[in-house]
């Protein structure tokens, strides 16, 4: 037996629930304050740990198509009573051109620095990364390459934005990730815990493929256009560069992070 359904169908854009969703969709400050973030779409909804779901919304069409029954099978009794929005209201809050009619408000995952370093596996540290697609791809590469976790500074794109969430393809819920209020202090803490710090840098004095990595390796990756600041690069134990041919000046940040993670995986295999 699935959860009880909220009988009323919300048809007004002035409804408090609709207003709350809009704020959470648009504002990282609102997401921080509420400790919640919206997740849209059936594929991502399947990935959410049931205990993290605070509210779940369906469009009238999704209800008629039986999508609720699928999620009830996944979540069981942990699924909160769904709230139904008219198709027009759902479209008005959706972040996609063709809404699938499923949206959940999810509790932020309380990962800690200790979670990131617990396995002693490679860590990626991001400074001022701005592209949600890059953020999501790096998180996916961390999981695929057996990495330990992700650390980003406060100037990075919000990992809980809808675009980033979609790019993570569900790894957001499985790979530890934290935002560092003090990036320098966090890098120092990595060193204190036995990590060797490498900065991906065009001025690197060694090719990334020539360095012998330990499992406790941390890679600093900077802004897509400007790279790492001099201050952050100076905190690294070693500057490394990825071998490139032709006239290419630099690689995409997510590609660079992925190559480094897989080089560690190759060496430790």
Concise account of the structure shown:
The chain is an alpha/beta fold and 269 residues long. It folds into two domains: 9-107, 60s Ribosomal Protein L30, Chain: A (2-Layer Sandwich); 113-268, 3-Layer(aba) Sandwich (Alpha/beta knot).
Task: Explain what the structure shows.
With about 270 residues, this protein is α/β, with parallel strands linked by helices. It folds into two domains: about 10-105, Ribosomal protein L30/S12 (60s Ribosomal Protein L30, Chain: A, 2-Layer Sandwich); about 115-269, Alpha/beta knot, CATH 3.40.1280.10. It contains twelve helices and twelve strands. The strands form two sheets. A seven-stranded parallel sheet has the order 8-7-6-11-9-12-10, with helices on both faces. It has a five-stranded mixed sheet with strand order 1-4-3-5-2. Helix 1 packs across helix 2 (about 30-35), helix 8 packs parallel to helix 9 and helix 8 (about 130-145) runs parallel beside helix 12. The longest helix is centred in the C-terminal third of the chain and has 16 residues, at about 255-269. The radius of gyration is 21 Å and the shape is elongated. The mean pLDDT is about 90.
The whole-angstrom Rg is 21 Å
> How many discrete structural domains?
2
Regions with pLDDT < 50 over 5+ consecutive residues?
A: none
CATH class of the largest domain: Alpha Beta
The helix content, as a percent range, equals 25-40%
Distance between the termini: 47 Å
Residue share in β-strands: 15-25%
Q: What's the tally of helices?
A: 12
Largest sheet: 7 strands, parallel
The SSE string, one letter per element, is EHHEHEHHEHEHEHEHEHEEEHEH
The CATH architecture of the largest domain comes to 3-Layer(aba) Sandwich
């Amino acid at each position: 037996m699935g959860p009880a359904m909220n009988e009323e169908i919300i048809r007004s854009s002035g409804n408090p629930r609709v207003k709350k969703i809009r704020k959470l969709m648009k504002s990282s400050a609102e997401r921080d304050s509420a400790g919640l973030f919206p997740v849209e779409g059936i594929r991502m909804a399947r990935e959410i740990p049931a205990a993290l779901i605070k509210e779940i919304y369906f469009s009238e069409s999704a209800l008629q198509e039986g999508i609720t029954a699928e999620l009830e099978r996944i979540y069981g009794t942990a699924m909160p009573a769904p709230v139904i929005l008219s198709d027009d209201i759902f479209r008005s809050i959706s972040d996609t051109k063709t809404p699938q009619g499923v949206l959940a408000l999810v509790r932020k995952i309380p990962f800690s620095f200790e979670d990131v370093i617990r396995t002693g596996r490679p860590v990626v540290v991001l400074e001022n990364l701005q592209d949600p697609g890059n953020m999501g791809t790096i998180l996916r590469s961390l999981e695929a390459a057996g990495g330990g976790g992700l650390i980003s500074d406060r100037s990075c794109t919000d990992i809980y934005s809808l675009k980033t969430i979609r790019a993570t393809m569900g790894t957001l819920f499985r790979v530890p990730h934290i935002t560092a209020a003090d990036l320098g202090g966090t890098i120092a803490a990595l060193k204190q815990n036995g990590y060797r710090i490498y900065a991906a840098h065009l001025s690197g004095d060694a090719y990334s493929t020539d360095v012998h990595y330990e499992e406790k390796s941390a890679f600093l990756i900077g802004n897509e256009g400007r790279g790492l600041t001099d201050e952050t690069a100076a905190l690294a134990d070693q500057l490394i560069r990825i071998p490139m041919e032709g006239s290419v000046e630099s690689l995409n940040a997510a590609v660079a992070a992925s190559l480094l993670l897989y080089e560690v995986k190759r060496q430790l295999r």
